[in-house]
Amino acid sequence: MDGETPLRLLVAWHPNASGNEALEFAAWLSRTTPTIVRTATIVVRPWLALSKLTSKYEKQLAKEAHRACQQAKKALTAAGVPEDSWDDPVNVLVDGSSQAALLNDIATDFDASIILFGSQGAARKGSFRANSTVDALLHSSPYALGLTPRAPKLAKHGVKRLTVAFTSLEFDSDTLDTALGLAGRLDVPVRVLAILREDVDTPTSLQSELHHSSREDALAFLDSLHDSIADKHPEQTVEAELAYGPSVADAMETPRWKKGDLLLLGSTPVGTLERVFVGSTAGEILRNIKTPAIVIPAGKPE
Q: What mean pLDDT comes out for the span 58-62?
């Protein structure tokens, strides 16, 4: 996310989608910093050999690609993405059996900074629900993913604060560097947020001491992180906050979330299956996000 070049936003989009949150996310970022926006539409087809596809199918696919491009322009305009941010082509339509693999390929061709997704249609207002494609990309994609809850409330003039969330006392320094670089690009203050889930299954006789100790450790971690950022980036405005509760959902209710907040999370650089958030504390954070979020994969060079 080099601050000298526009953010390249690839929006996973389909004309028949129930919501346009991903396009609204792109428009919101475009109101904050220069962007180049391309939409990607995937047509899922069965496991057929290319040789079995007829010329009639190919002609119809070309017609659908043209139609999708025209619909994408209307949707981008409706969402408020300025025309000078549109890529050429503004939409690509491809077919295949794996949406995740195709999106990764398109992102590579486009040199995407972030792949943007809206929430699955069944999600309640103000929450995020990942579909199977997002789940697969969280496991495997080398690209940052932008995820936005259903019907988010977004500040009219763009991003106003970047919240960087930590779920343990260990974190990927690359993620913090990426966050500070993004905050500098957007010219916004940073809030470092430690999210602490306090286990209610702990025996009652131990809860008080354990909860007190864990909060003290988290606060010490935040103090150290705050001081480190202030030393290395004296120009950056930084605040620190601890959020805790018996569940991640409860902890996420503790901080005050504003319309201008953008959340950033990083993957933990461990094993492939553990690197992502399914079933983890960070996975619960994603399911309870109040604002748009960017997930940075571990080890991605920026």
A: 89
